[in-house]
Write a structure and sequence with these properties.
The structure holds three protein chains of three kinds.
Chain A: E1 3-7, E2 11-15, E3 20-21, H1 26-38, E4 43-47, E5 53-54, H2 56-69, E6 74-78, H3 82-90, E7 98-100, H4 103-113
Parallel strand pairs in A: 2-4, 3-5, 4-6, 6-7
Antiparallel strand pairs in A: 1-2
Helix pairs in contact in A: 1-2
Chain B: H1 8-19, H2 25-45, E1 55-60, E2 64-70, H3 99-106, E3 109-113, E4 120-126
Antiparallel strand pairs in B: 1-2, 2-4, 3-4
Helix pairs in contact in B: 1-2, 2-3
Chain C: E1 7-11, H1 15-27, E2 31-35, H2 38-47, E3 52-56, H3 64-73, E4 81-86, H4 91-100, E5 104-107, H5 112-160, E6 165-168, E7 171-178, E8 186-192, E9 197-205, H6 210-222, H7 225-231, H8 241-253, E10 261-269, E11 274-280, E12 286-288, E13 294-296, E14 315-318, E15 324-328, H9 330-333, H10 345-353, H11 355-358, H12 362-375, E16 384-391
Parallel strand pairs in C: 1-2, 1-3, 3-4, 4-5
Antiparallel strand pairs in C: 6-7, 7-16, 8-9, 9-10, 10-11, 11-14, 12-13, 12-15, 15-16
Helix pairs in contact in C: 2-3, 7-8
The chains are: A alpha/beta, B alpha+beta, C alpha+beta.
Chain lengths: 114, 134, 392
């Protein structure tokens, strides 16, 4: 379900490939990203540009992925629309994840940080 | 709608479209989150068979939008108010457990009753507010 | 899915139910089109080419059953698949819907998998119908091409048949020709083969249609005045049409197929009126003299191209001045009227007999007209050739 784009310095941009990241597909999303991490990806950007809605299961999956990355790398999010941003806010997830406006901005920042 | 997770998103989309005119945009965001969590919760925790039917009623009153979810026949009663979780107090790195908190946080009123027939969860959203519930 | 998603009409009066169904259907990769009642759905069916309808039963302004019935009465050039939404135990409603022309059912609040399966089944049928229509169209296109080719062939063939209304070496020749199909298996020719001799022949290839036509055209090209000159005379220079027929027989017997033809071939001397002819299975022509006496010439003979060892013989007769020969293919005698009675040789003969009264030009016309009247409508089942040849 997910689409990935590789960038220099081992940065991977992941697009969930669904409009709504919810209970029905959250586990599949988490499994797919975890598989990327197990294959060695460590600098991950989750691009929500085409996602219109995320529910608590979607957020849970994202937290699960974050814990899998742990200290070995970085995981940031970008492209949140107003509804998704508000969901992050209500659940205090904006304190947990670094949020960028666009994938380009996130790629640049991650590259500089290394 | 059927008692399956894949029906939740279409139902939420339909409900949002149905009440889009009646609720201010800021409330509509909470409405979507609340309904998504409530329907997912009903499907996940009811313990009823997949063939069971969940009835959803939407009533647009002058002051509020009322959503009533009638749980599937044979479902285990589940009153979200008994499982309230403060979202702010939750471990930020917990992977689950936010759903009930979100239902209670995002609706203006939550009622639950389990008479002899199917249990009913009703969610109220006031129409005259503009801001968040913070 | 192809570039543009397949459209599905959702007829449902409850807005929430309708939005829910549309949302489900859109999530499956289709494009749901909303109709708030049966009348709106019927309008959409009438004015678009949408082929799948999902309809509720109870709706204002035309319910699901009446809507289905109305759709089945429309004169559409495509089929509309009607899937009716009913309660799980609504056996009676389902039977009603089936009687009114519904194709399938889904249960209200039923599983999304079932809905998916139902719409996919409808899609398969639509695609299948599309393929069939495409195949039919391709076949028709090919058939049109073949028919156009046939008409072109028929034209070419017609040009090969002489339209004989001429004086040739002191003979007056007239002809008529009526093909049974677009192309024909008949062929005839008449020409000067020397300063004194007129050669003529008529051929009827067995069967009709394209094969027979191809063979008749081959014969038409082959049997030229030159062919008469090289094959139609013996060493002493005496006309020998049997030799010509034998040469054709040798040539057409070698092929593996069973095609053969009947032929009448003659060479006639302008000064003496002596006719030397060879009959090879073709109906006997009638010799008509000025008094109206009518005599069939020849006694049969083997068709050409059937047996390699067949023998052909010449016969001789003399045409006095004013007498004529009427050659007519078996399409005339064998033509049946609506009650199954063949036209018969006697009727052909009596028309031929009239030649001295009506003139040589008129006889072929009369035979064609008499046969048309005999058939009383249906075209001839076999090709018809009539050649009349009068010694002036």
């Amino acid at each position: 379900m997910i689409h990935t784009t590789q960038h220099p310095k081992d940065i991977t941009v992941v697009r969930p490939g669904v409009e709504r990241l919810t209970a029905v597909n959250a586990k599949a999303f988490k499994d797919a990203v975890v598989a990327l991490i197990e294959d060695g990806a460590s600098q991950l950007i989750i691009d929500f540009g085409t996602v219109t809605f995320v529910d608590s299961s979607g957020l849970g999956a994202l937290v699960g992925v974050l814990k899998r990355v742990g200290h070995r790398g970085d995981l940031v999010v970008c492209g949140l629309n107003a509804d998704v941003a508000q969901m992050f806010q209500i659940c205090r997830m904006d304190k947990v994840f670094t949020v960028y406006t666009s994938a380009d901005a996130a790629v640049q920042k991650l590259a500089e940080n290394q | 709608m059927p008692n399956t997770l894949d029906a939740v998103d279409p139902m939420v989309v339909a409900l949002c479209a149905h009440v889009a005119e009646a609720l201010p945009p800021a409330v509509l965001v909470r409405f979507q989150i609340c309904l998504s969590e409530a329907l997912t919760n009903v499907v996940k925790h009811a313990g009823a068979p997949a063939s069971a039917v969940i009835d959803v009623d939407a009533t647009i009153n002058p002051d509020a939008v009322l959503i009533e979810l009638f749980e599937a026949e044979g479902a285990n009663p589940f009153d979200p108010r008994d499982h309230a979780v403060d979202l702010a107090a939750l471990d930020p790195l917990a992977e689950s457990g936010r759903g009930i908190g979100l239902i209670l946080h995002c609706a203006d009123a939550v009622e639950y009753s389990a008479p002899d027939g199917p249990a009913r969860l009703s969610l109220t959203f006031k129409r005259d507010q503009t801001g968040d519930l913070e | 899915m192809s570039a543009s998603p397949l459209k599905v009409i959702v007829a449902e009066d409850s807005e929430l139910q309708r939005l829910y169904l549309c949302s489900l259907i859109n999530a499956l990769g289709y494009q749901a089109i909303e109709a708030e009642d049966g009348a709106a759905a019927l309008d959409l069916i009438r004015n678009t080419d949408i082929q799948i309808l999902i309809s509720d039963i109870e709706m204002p302004n035309l319910d699901g059953i009446a809507l289905t019935r109305a759709i089945r009465q429309l004169d559409l050039d495509h089929y509309v698949h009607v899937i009716v939404v009913t309660g799980a135990d609504d056996t009676e409603v389902r039977e009603d819907a089936l009687r009114s022309g519904a194709d399938d059912f889904i249960t209200k609040g039923g599983s999304t998998e079932t809905l998916k399966a139902r719409i996919r089944a409808a899609t398969r049928l639509i695609n299948h119908a599309k393929e069939l229509a495409e195949r039919t169209r391709a076949l028709k296109e090919k058939n049109d091409l073949i028919e156009a080719d046939l008409r072109a062939a028929a034209n070419a063939q017609r040009q090969l048949l002489p339209d004989l209304h001429d004086d040739l070496l002191g003979f007056h020749v007239a002809s008529a020709f009526a093909p049974s199909a677009i192309v024909s298996g008949d062929m005839f020719g008449c020409f000067e083969v020397s300063d004194d001799m007129l050669g003529f022949y008529a051929v009827d290839v067995s069967g009709h249609g394209v094969r027979a036509s191809l063979m008749s055209v081959a014969i038409g090209h082959l049997v030229s005045p030159d062919y008469f000159r090289t094959h139609g005379f013996d060493d002493s220079g005496k006309p020998d049409p049997a030799a010509l027929v034998a040469a054709l027989n040798a040539r057409f017997s070698t092929s593996d197929d069973d095609d053969y033809f009947t032929m009448f071939c003659g060479i006639i001397n302008r000064h003496t009126g002596q006719l030397i002819f060879c009959q090879a299975g073709y109906p006997s022509p009638y010799l008509v003299d000025t008094t109206g006496d009518t005599l069939p010439l020849g006694d049969g003979g083997m068709p050409v191209g059937m047996l390699p060892f067949a023998r052909y013989e010449n016969n001789t007769h003399t045409l006095s001045r004013g007498s004529a020969l009427v050659i007519c293919s078996d399409g005339a005698a064998e033509a049946e009227n609506p009650s199954g009675e063949p036209f018969g040789n006697d009727r052909v003969r009596s028309i031929a007999q009239n030649l001295s009264n009506v003139g040589v030009e008129q006889v072929p016309v009369d035979i064609v007209a008499a046969l048309a009247a005999w058939r009383a409508g249906p075209p001839l089942e076999d090709d018809l050739t009539v050649v009349a040849l009068e010694r002036k």
